[in-house]
Specification:
The complex is a heterodimer of chains A (399) and B (183). Chain A is built from 16 helices and eight strands. Chain A is α+β, with helices and mostly antiparallel strands and 399 residues long. Chain B has helices at 2-13, 37-46, 106-117, 173-176; strands spanning 22-24, 27-31, 54-62, 67-74, 81-89, 95-97, 120-122. With 183 residues, chain B is of the alpha/beta class. The two termini of chain B are 27 Å apart. Chain B has a domain at 2-122: Beta Polymerase, domain 2 (2-Layer Sandwich). The longest helix of chain B is centred in the first third of the chain and has 12 residues, at 2-13. Classes of the chains: A alpha+beta (399), B alpha/beta (183). At the A-B interface, helix 1, helix 2, strand 6, strand 7 and strand 8 of A face strand 3, strand 4 and helix 3 of B.
C-alpha cells in the first residue's frame, strides 16, 4: 500500500514558514518585518507570478487572510542600464533606455533625449516636436488600454484584456509601421525623430481615429458598470494628497488623489502649451479613482492627437547636428509626463562623447513603495487590486 | 518667475551657497555644503516663499574624486524646479543625513544610492541593498567599477577606448579613473 501524506508517520512537521534559513535582519525595518507575532506567517508571492506584471517577489506577512506587512524584493530584472549608458555614446544611450518600461518605451526615450538636447542646446524642428507629441500620446493610449485589461485580469475578469488588446495592437502595429519595431521603438533622436511620417502609418491612424472614441467607450462600458469590479476597487488602498506628495507620487496616481500636477501643463515641453486639453483629477484616491483617471486621460489623448493632426506643419524632422556629439561640461534634467508619472533623466556631461553620469528616474519604482502602506489590513487578494491600480512595470522598477 | 527664484534663493541662503545660483532653461541649481544640507532642504520644503514639496528625484553621483547627492525638487505653488547638489562626500566612507524624515518616498531612492554608490544615509530605517543580492560586495556605479568590455570597443563607439576588464598593474589612479573637469 502506498503511504499517504496524511499519515502522521510520514508527515514532516514544518518548523518554519521559510523554505530556506530565514535571513538575518540587516536593518531596523527588516527586523520589524521578520519578527512574527502569534498567528502570523509569511507567504511568498512571485517572482513568477502573473499579477506582478514582471518579475517581482513580494514577501507577505499574513494573519489569517489579512495582510499585516509586506516586503517587495527587487532586482530580478536589474540590467544596470545607468552603467551601460555611461559606457555608450549619446546616441547609443537612447536605445538602452527603451526596454525600461516596455509598454511605454517612447516616454523612456523622450526623457534622456530631452536632457541631452538641453545639454547640447539643440532646437528641435517644429514638425519633429509635433510628431513626438503624436507618437507619445498614441503610446499613452496603448499603455492605458493595456492597464485597463491588466487591472481587470488581476481582479479575475479575463474578457477585458482581450478587448483591450484590440486597441493596443492596432496602435502597436501603427507605430511598427512608423518605426520598424513593435515595442522598443528607438525612434527619437537628439534633435528630432528618425524618419518622417509614412503613408502606412497615416492611413492606419486615420482608420483608427475614426472609430477609436466609440471603441474605447464600449471597452469602458464593459468594466466601469461592472458591480464586482466597482465593489472590489472602491475605497480600496486610499491615498490622500498629503501622503502622496510626501511619497513622491506623480502622474495619474497623484491626480487620482486630487492634486492636478501634470508636467504637460505645469512645466511645458515640446508643443504642449499650444494644445488644448484638460487634466482630469479625482478626489477619492482609491483604486477605482486611479483607474478612472487613466480612462479619462485616454479621451484627452485622443483630443490632443486630433489637434496635432490638424496643426502639424511641414518641414524637416531632424536638426542639423554633427555625427559625433560632444556637449560642453554641464548638467541637465529632462522630464516628461508619461502614462505612469514623471520620467526623468539627469545627465552630466564631462565634455566627451559619452554621458559622465546618467541617472534614470522611473515613476514605477517610486509607486511600488506604496504597495506596502496601502495594503496593510486588507485581504491578500486585494494586494493585487492595489498593485494593479498603481500600474508599475517591473522593467522600469528594476532598471 | 525664475529670476525671482534666483534672487530669493540668494537672499535666503546667502553665504550658505557654495556657488552662485545657476539657471539654464527651466532649471535652477544651488550647491550647499554637507553640514547645511538638511537645514536647507527643510527650509526649501517648509518656507511659504518656496514650498518645494515634491521630491522629483534623488540620486548619487561619483565624480571620481568625491561623491555627491543630488535632489530635484518641484514647488507646489510656483511650479519652479530646483536642483540641490550636495558635493564633497568622502569617497571612502560617504555619509549624509537621510531625507526620509521629510519625504518618506525617498527611502527606496536612498536605498538605490546606497546600493550603487555605497552612500550611507543616516536615519534611513531600511538602508540595505535593493537591486543587487544581499551578499554582493561592491558598488557598481562607482567610477572605479569597470565593465567587461563589449560594445564600447567597436569602431562605432566613439574615440575613447575607456573600458577595461581589469585595471593595469602599473596604472596610476589618475589614468584609470575617469574624472570630470566641470562637475
Amino acid at each position: 500500500m502506498r503511504p499517504s501524506l496524511d499519515d502522521p508517520r510520514v508527515a514532516i512537521p514544518a518548523e518554519s514558514t521559510w523554505y530556506e534559513p530565514a535571513p538575518t535582519p540587516q536593518t531596523e525595518r527588516q527586523a520589524e518585518f521578520l519578527s512574527l507575532r502569534e498567528g502570523e506567517m509569511f507567504v511568498n508571492m512571485g517572482p513568477q507570478h502573473p499579477s506582478t506584471h514582471g518579475v517581482l517577489r513580494v514577501i507577505i506577512k499574513v494573519n489569517g487572510e489579512k495582510v499585516v506587512d509586506l516586503d517587495p524584493v527587487l532586482g530580478y530584472l536589474h540590467r544596470g542600464v545607468e552603467k551601460l549608458c555611461e559606457n555608450a555614446d549619446y546616441h547609443q544611450a537612447i536605445c538602452y533606455t527603451d526596454p525600461l518600461e516596455y509598454v511605454s518605451s517612447l516616454f523612456c526615450e523622450a526623457a534622456p533625449v530631452a536632457a541631452f538636447e538641453k545639454l547640447m542646446d539643440v532646437d528641435v524642428p517644429r514638425r519633429a516636436q509635433y510628431i513626438r507629441v503624436l507618437t507619445m500620446e498614441l503610446n499613452r493610449i496603448a499603455s492605458h488600454t493595456l492597464f485597463q485589461g491588466w487591472m481587470a485580469l488581476d481582479l479575475g475578469g479575463i474578457t477585458p484584456i482581450l478587448w483591450a488588446f484590440i486597441e493596443r495592437d492596432e496602435i502597436v502595429d501603427m507605430l511598427a509601421a512608423l518605426t520598424g519595431q513593435k515595442l522598443l521603438y528607438n525612434y527619437y533622436r537628439i534633435g528630432g525623430v528618425n524618419g518622417d511620417l509614412n503613408h502606412e502609418f497615416m492611413s492606419r491612424l486615420g482608420t483608427w481615429m475614426s472609430r477609436a472614441a466609440a471603441q474605447i467607450d464600449s471597452n469602458l462600458a464593459l468594466i466601469n458598470e461592472n458591480e464586482i469590479f466597482v465593489r472590489r476597487t472602491r475605497g480600496l488602498g486610499v491615498l490622500d494628497a498629503k501622503t502622496a506628495l510626501k511619497m513622491g507620487v506623480t502622474g495619474p496616481n497623484l491626480r487620482a488623489s486630487g492634486v492636478p500636477f501634470d508636467l504637460r501643463r505645469d512645466r511645458p515641453y515640446l508643443v504642449y502649451p499650444e494644445l488644448e486639453f484638460d487634466v482630469p483629477t479625482r478626489d477619492e484616491g482609491d483604486s477605482l479613482a486611479r483607474y478612472l483617471v487613466r480612462m479619462d486621460e485616454i479621451k484627452q489623448s485622443i483630443r490632443i492627437i486630433d489637434q496635432v493632426l490638424h496643426e502639424m506643419p511641414d518641414g524637416p524632422v531632424m536638426a542639423k547636428l554633427p555625427r559625433l556629439l560632444r556637449p560642453r561640461p554641464g548638467r541637465a534634467f529632462g522630464a516628461v509626463e508619461g502614462p505612469r508619472g514623471v520620467y526623468g533623466t539627469y545627465a552630466i556631461s564631462d565634455g566627451t562623447d559619452q554621458p559622465f553620469r546618467m541617472r534614470i528616474h522611473d515613476p514605477s519604482f517610486v509607486h511600488l513603495q506604496l504597495v506596502g502602506p496601502l495594503t496593510k489590513g486588507n485581504l491578500i487578494a486585494d494586494t493585487m487590486a492595489v498593485m494593479a491600480s498603481l500600474d508599475p512595470v517591473m522593467g522600469g522598477v528594476d532598471k | 518667475m525664475d529670476r525671482r527664484l534666483a534672487a530669493l534663493l540668494q537672499e535666503k541662503f546667502g553665504e550658505r551657497l557654495l556657488t552662485p545660483v545657476r539657471q539654464r532653461y527651466d532649471e535652477s541649481e544651488i550647491r550647499v555644503a554637507l553640514k547645511d544640507a538638511t537645514d536647507t532642504l527643510r527650509t526649501l520644503h517648509d518656507d511659504p516663499a518656496f514650498r518645494f514639496e515634491m521630491l522629483i528625484d534623488l540620486c548619487g553621483v561619483d565624480t571620481g574624486e568625491e561623491m555627491q547627492v543630488v535632489y530635484h525638487l518641484s514647488s507646489s505653488t510656483s511650479g519652479d524646479w530646483l536642483r540641490v547638489i550636495v558635493p564633497g562626500l568622502d569617497r571612502v566612507a560617504p555619509r549624509i543625513a537621510s531625507a526620509t524624515f521629510m519625504w518618506p518616498g525617498a527611502e527606496w531612492m536612498e536605498r538605490e544610492a546606497y546600493d550603487m554608490f555605497g552612500i550611507i544615509f543616516e536615519g534611513n530605517r531600511d538602508l540595505r541593498r535593493i537591486y543587487m543580492p544581499d551578499d554582493y560586495r561592491s558598488f557598481p556605479l562607482r567610477k572605479d567599477f569597470y565593465l567587461a568590455d563589449d560594445a564600447s570597443r567597436s569602431p562605432a563607439a566613439g574615440v575613447r577606448n575607456m573600458e577595461r576588464a581589469g585595471t593595469p598593474a602599473d596604472a596610476t589612479a589618475a589614468t584609470v579613473l575617469r574624472k570630470s573637469p566641470g562637475v
